Amino acid sequence: MLLKPAFTVKMLSLSLSLAIAGGFSGAVSAQQNINFQPKSVAGGLLQLAKETGVQIYVAKDILAKTKQAASVINAASPVLALEQLLADSELQAHWLDKNQLVIKHKGDTTPVASLVNPENNILATGQFERISVYGRHNQLILDSGTATKSDMSLLETPAAIVVVDKLLLDEQAISTLQESIRNISGVTQAGNNYGIGDNLVIRGLGANYTFDGMYAGASLGNSYNPTRSLTNIESVEVLKGPATGLYGMGAAGGVINMIEKKPKDKESYQIETSLGQWDSHALMFDATAPITDKTAYRLVTNYESSDGYRGLSSERSEVYATLRHYLNENNEFIFSSAYIDDEIQVDSVGHPVRVFNPETTNASSDTIGWQDLANDTDADGDGIFGIALTPEQRQQLADSLVSTDGLEPYDLGEQGLISPLSKPNEGKELRFKLQHKMEINDDLSLHQQLLYRDYSSDFARQTGAYNYVYWNRNGEINADPRAPLVIDDVLYPYAARRQEYRRTKSNEKTWQYFADLTHTWSLGAIDGEQLLTVNYENRDMTLKSWSIYDADGTSSENALPYILDIRNPNWGTGSFEDYDPVLKSNYDKSVSAWGISLQEVLYFDDMLTGRFGVAYSGTEQSYQHKGTARTPEKSQEADTDDAGATYNLGLNYRLNDQVATFVNYSKGRMTYSILGSVTGEDDRPDSESTSFDLGIRFTAFDEDLLASLVWFQTKRTNLRYNNEQYDDNPESDSFNISVPQYFYDNNDTTSGVEFDLNLALNELWSMNFNATYQDAYSIIKHERTEQTKGVPKRYASLWTSYNHQFPVLSEPVKFSLGVTYEDERSISTGWSGLPHSVVPSYVLWDAAMSYQLEKWNIQLNLRNLADTTYYNKALFNGGLPGDSRNVKLSVSYNFD
């Protein structure tokens, strides 16, 4: 979904009263003409602060729960305006001097001095109006400035942005980033997936992951991919398209930015436990409180474990600790740390597609006979023959075929091809982050962040298991070992061969620094925000991997046994090390990136805004091969570097208070391959990316409906390939160095339309809906490919909730219903004999029911109501089955 969930937070009724100390002089009591119509208490306080210069401090949670204000304020002084604004309320104003005041509830014992900080200054943040005008359920949608590092509201922003709040994630009982993408238009699982960690794409192209704008790991092939938990996450933001200037080295598709929980000035605690299918259980504790009037902490811990559907077990322990300190009114420091230790089983095979291409026969899968499965006759005249099967064996193969073989994964039910020789992905992550926010003066602020991250991974997975039925490969029919398995004249039609298990150990250490200097200014009717950003990061990576094979891949006496029947697999005994592992990869890789960027946000008037940015960034890579079985010699370290400019141009025009249109064009860059080797002589230049967005946003029903429609085209460009006419061998008959050695016009492209709607017409009913159409393809040597592997053309998801009041209950019961549709996704690989295979489309229904009573919340989630068989990932040669019907019960208790 493009918009944050439209969930109504139960408004606490506040009776209104005001105690205002008298005796103010100067600007506070001076005769003025204050006249405006606030839509909320927060909006009125912000307007009052802007017009009078009075510094107003108030905690956000107070205003998020406050009813709308009086319709019109008409007063001769700030004191009288404040009386009207807070008439009939239980809010109390505490004047510190003639220019400062703090607003609290009457019974609130929080020290007044502890609220005097930049976070609570309504004029400095300028964000409270959006909290109560749109209600808490829409707060994060409209407060979208963090994604663009500006104070622009969503209706002023010329960029495609999605914000998903914790409220919706909790409604759906979502605990990982992968589960959350059902709410985000344009974000799907990557194709050619190996089932390791988060491997997501935005608009069919790579995604960059960040925590509060700082590096959170990447999708790096089959290694370094953590499964990111949402335990410590308040919201998920997605900025679509390249954003090199704002976030540094990143992917073409965009940025997935996870906003972490922060300390609060009010003491609060939460305990939550959950139970579910497959012996799933979890226990979470979240504590936050002030230590002094300037210092607060937050501690979040979590443990969860599950045997998992089809044996895909997981276990995770997490600890997050954050300390926030206000050195003074203008300086805030936040130190945070995280430690995550998890073990997640890997399934890289899933339900495999049987290797059978109906086009190479004269019949379809369900009508085929033994005569259609002809033996090789050496039609190509090369003297090479495939295996010869008897008529009885060919009939046995024909009898084993079903109509979807060669076209879709073979349904193994709850049976999986996860061998005891495999090893769960043991991931360990340690993060330390220091933030410093400084208000230099009223118009100038500095935000610095320093990150250290250490992530290690260790797993063993099955990378291949092919069930060959019939394949005419380059003129050879059933050429061994890409052929049905026959042992001692016995045919095994469901056998899996060419097996490989791979053990991988990797480590990535990252240092990253960002400094954002923001300057606000005014010139006549034009207001502006200037952002100067400098950044540097360094990633040091090490990787070693070993492989073991069956007899098709090794002559060792300790070869893996063939799987004789994928429906009831036989497994090798012992451990991975018993099968003569071969060292396949062993290298060190380092990537450094630096950049400087300038962003200018212009508010031309109430209707027209613009966001313009330019950046210059560079990358440096070093690579050292450290010796493998095939190449035992250790190589010299090789280096390469590249640099270039990127930019962003965007305009947003509000046709009226309810409708805004925007156009945006951006360009980014990134190293062609983070993990790829470099020689220091003829290395690929950085890949580049472009994105064009044309969109419209609109609100209705007093801003309880928020929606957007965006047309986009995003590309990954500057992809190199060889010029076949180039030949630098002077002794060759085709010698030609007068033409370019390389071309750089290959690209990966996705164009399409995204629609997002967020609706909360009243406190009873809410709905979130997103839909995506995307045409994803590559241009290779001027030829267009078919739909990008694993990327659906169509995707849609809806989640709706209704609060029903039963007479016998003191509080309403919330009922929720969700439905997701995902189009078929290609897993075609012509080189493996599957030119037209797909994972089929599916429709998935979910439901939830929750009841909140005082400090308790009980919630029951029902997933996959119809017990649909579906595949949530398109793997390399098959589909990863999604969970069968299951139930999860969650109970939480909040106290202070």
Describe this structure in words.
The chain is mainly β. It contains 11 helices and 46 strands. The strands form 9 sheets. It has a 22-stranded antiparallel β-barrel. Strands 6, 7, 8, 9, 10, 11 and 12 form a 7-stranded mixed β-sheet that branches. Strands 2-5-4 form a 3-stranded mixed β-sheet. Strand 13 and strand 14 (280-290) form a beta hairpin. The model is unreliable at 1-30 and 125-140 (pLDDT under 50).
Layout of strands and helices, then pairs:
Blueprint: E1 34-36, H1 41-52, E2 55-58, H2 60-64, E3 73-75, H3 78-85, E4 91-97, E5 100-105, H4 122-125, H5 128-133, H6 139-142, H7 145-148, E6 161-165, H8 166-171, H9 177-180, E7 187-189, E8 200-202, E9 205-211, E10 214-218, E11 233-240, H10 244-247, E12 254-260, E13 268-276, E14 280-290, E15 295-306, E16 314-328, E17 331-344, E18 351-352, E19 355-356, H11 391-400, E20 423-441, E21 444-466, E22 468-470, E23 472-473, E24 476-477, E25 485-487, E26 490-492, E27 497-523, E28 526-549, E29 582-603, E30 608-625, E31 638-654, E32 659-670, E33 687-700, E34 705-722, E35 742-759, E36 765-780, E37 783-784, E38 794-804, E39 813-822, E40 825-826, E41 838-839, E42 842-853, E43 856-863, E44 871-874, E45 878-881, E46 886-895
Parallel strand pairs: 2-5, 9-12, 19-22
Antiparallel strand pairs: 1-3, 4-5, 6-11, 7-8, 8-9, 9-10, 11-12, 13-14, 13-46, 14-15, 15-16, 16-17, 17-20, 18-45, 20-21, 21-27, 23-24, 25-26, 27-28, 28-29, 29-30, 30-31, 31-32, 32-33, 33-34, 34-35, 35-36, 36-37, 36-38, 38-39, 39-42, 40-41, 42-43, 43-46, 44-45
Helix pairs in contact: 1-3
